[in-house]
Design brief:
single chain, Udp-n-acetylmuramoylalanyl-d-glutamate--2,6- Diaminopimelate Ligase, Chain: A, domain 1, 6-stranded mixed beta sheet, 10 helices, 5-stranded mixed beta sheet, 2 domains
Amino acid sequence: MRGKGVKNAKKSANLDSADSTKLAANLAKKPKDSTKSQNLGQNLDSLNPDSANLKSANFKNLKSAINPLTLGEIYKILDSISPFELQESWDNSGLIIGNLDSKISHIYLSLEATKEIALNLEPNSLLVTHHPLIFSPLKSLDFKSYPSNIIEILIKKNIALIALHTNFDKTHLNKYFVDKVLDLKDFKQIKSENIAIILESKSKSLESIATHIKSRINSTIKITKATNKISKIAVVCGAGISECVGLEVDLIITGDVKYHDAMKFQSLGVSIIDVGHYNSECEFGRILYPYLKKIHYNAIILDSQNPFIFN
């Protein structure tokens, strides 16, 4: 999840034409159902991402031989997995670039739309990202500036772009981060507030929780200590601390915490563990992959690199 005000590893295989046509027809008949989408997120364990073969491959060796669906058909599939209507009012999930009537020969999944990724994608493809490339309204397209420089590449190569952002946070990403990444076995999920997931347990020390999380993500973390006794935790991926204002918790686990936010929550007696934006959301493609696999569509998962280097 990107912060408010900053708006919008590799695999290949085949799509069965008959299955895709039947699926598209069925989806066209089904109204949007946010309850069902929430159930998809709740039942994420029934589709184990670890069962998908996600071995890396070289970009140049990726040759997906699929019977192309239209961008509109794929949009309906993604909307059935995580309805775009669930996104926050300030978000820009959905179609970013493309013509819904265009045929799509490849689907790629990535946390971000980076320049390197855009340059290496096959023409006439679809890139599905977590973060919207276009977030705030653009007044001009200066191809020497960001994000116009990436938009130019995508348009020239006829590459469509769809983002699954805060809607996917709500239906899938936060729950996956809690269950599969953090694996806080001693804490039980009791409810969701805003986008955050609230966990509760008998009192644990902040140090023990921090040590466990660091071992799980195998990376540096930042800690703001306000209290050492933790019994209630709010978890939200990305730069989501603004979603935790007013929550009655002892600890917030999130990423991209700014200095003044850390000072504010510390004064309110709430500790923070900042795992980093990338670490909290880098499994986006891995989460989405098995849902597409279930409908006989193997997407290509791209390794979107953390832009930061820690030493």
